[in-house]
């Protein structure tokens, strides 16, 4: 185990996500290749290439936003996202190649910086320039991510000045060519390297596309953000929007500022056409330096995260931190890797791997969202929602881009990922968190139960409302039909358990079959059976005990309290046995006149925690109450209101913080909260009205209390007891 750092600098949206993402996208390709792209493809072709490139990254950014608002993302960016969804084996198979490619990217950015530097000072020693730049980068990143962020602010200022230089040039008349001449499709004449022997749209696309692959720079800092759930979507999407506008505008400017021949033959055309060419050179140096800095900081965080999860050998060493929370050991290892790649002097052979590992990462993030969306588990309720076609478009376009850029290296990249996965799958990694694979298994088990027979306990992320409803009065069941359907819909189930003395001409089984068929027609799986017994409570308990041996056993028993029920002798024994068997309990008391009202508001009563306001994974007898409220909210299009009544005034601040944190971590948008101080029985009568009030159930729930709550709230009430296998925070 690693020791908790004494102080960890946390970053906001602008510094932690927007700045590194924007600076990585606005890289050397913008300065040295955008003109060539426009010269070959024409302005219309260049615009199409920019739109296509950013569309691919936008889809992935949207998918990433959905995932990051649905989980408590740890350190490691994309590695953390994939690991928490598909397990450490899949996350590591992506994280290890991604980490190595990030190191290679740092080296390539250093080489790009060196080329720009030698353009100014041709007499300087190339290797010495590389070593000095690497040393400066390493020192900045090693000291702290805070210094790296501050350095990037300076670089952003330089890039802004370079763009201002272009704006001034445009204002001073650099855009001399007519719009009709620039607004055309290109002739794709090629480049100096191939003697202008011709090119194609897809070759030009492959040259430009790496410019749009910097969207993970901010996500890599996930472990050091104040609020990654908010910062990653906002910062990444804003960076994409701003950089897209800049690229589109620059393409228009350069198309009217230089001829086709100038554009395809001179990579430094922007330097010559800008008002202050030296600022463009500074921008090139700044862009390569900032990209290298973001990559070295981000890659060390990926390595640190894998060390925390024991994915790699010597993981405890890699997970070591300094007193201010910096992953110094991971940084040293990363520095050694980069230094060794610097000695290679020529990375042309492996350079495509960098872009292709980015695209594999994008594809995996989209796959995660596709799986989560199609499983339909209640644990997937992101604050940032995306349409179903978005991850599909992101996945298909990412794979398409891979094979357009380099089919051979794409296959090699995929083989590397599969090889690493094969290796990690044999290491028996111990996942410290639950991932969505449990949901996959449970879904598969619906048609192939033999594959998941070993999963005796339903896992929290795969939780569904599987109700067992005892019935002896069919009319009472009909009265709660829609209520039951709204609790179970869409992925839950309802098991109707008829209880009656044996008679030869009973019609109960037939009636229950008809009602089960109605549930199925309305989108909820249902089945029914009848137990013949004179003892109502024993019949239910025998049914509960028998179903413990079934794989798809009910996890909630629904008791509809009616006038003919003997609470003490019939319902209380059922509740006691359900608690023993770890089955959740819903005891429903329908108000005679109010019924379920307008189905607009659901009150969930949170008990006074009396000094224990820490929010951990165990939140007491509250998980099932909120899960049921959330199901009803979605199916009723209603609002949830959390209410707590305190005995002491001094607990108000803690209670407010607890409820707000609960709403945030449980992903309960538009949830109201109310806190009262005083006597519970008095406040219940004064509390805001609702169509349904949900109360936690004490082990010895009194019948008098049920009646009082139903009368005082003037509404139907639901009394809930957790089974211990639910979690609203999952």
Automatic annotation (TrEMBL):
Asked if the Swiss-Prot or TrEMBL record annotates the protein with the keyword rRNA processing, the reply is no
Give all residue intervals belonging to the Amino acid permease/ SLC12A domain: 17-441
**Domain Prokaryotic cation-chloride cotransporter second C-terminal subdomain residues, every copy:** 597-729
Q: What is this protein called?
A: Amino acid permease
UniProt organism field: Winogradskyella alexanderae
Q: Where is the protein found, in the record's own terms?
A: Membrane
Q: Which Gene3D superfamilies match?
A: Amino acid/polyamine transporter I
How is this protein positioned relative to the membrane? Multi-pass membrane protein
Q: Where are the transmembrane segments?
A: 12-32, 44-67, 79-100, 126-145, 152-171, 201-223, 235-254, 274-297, 330-347, 353-371, 392-424
Q: Which UniProt keywords apply?
A: Membrane, Transmembrane, Transmembrane helix
Prokaryotic cation-chloride cotransporter first C-terminal subdomain domain residues are 469-596
Asked if Cell division is a keyword of the record, the answer is no
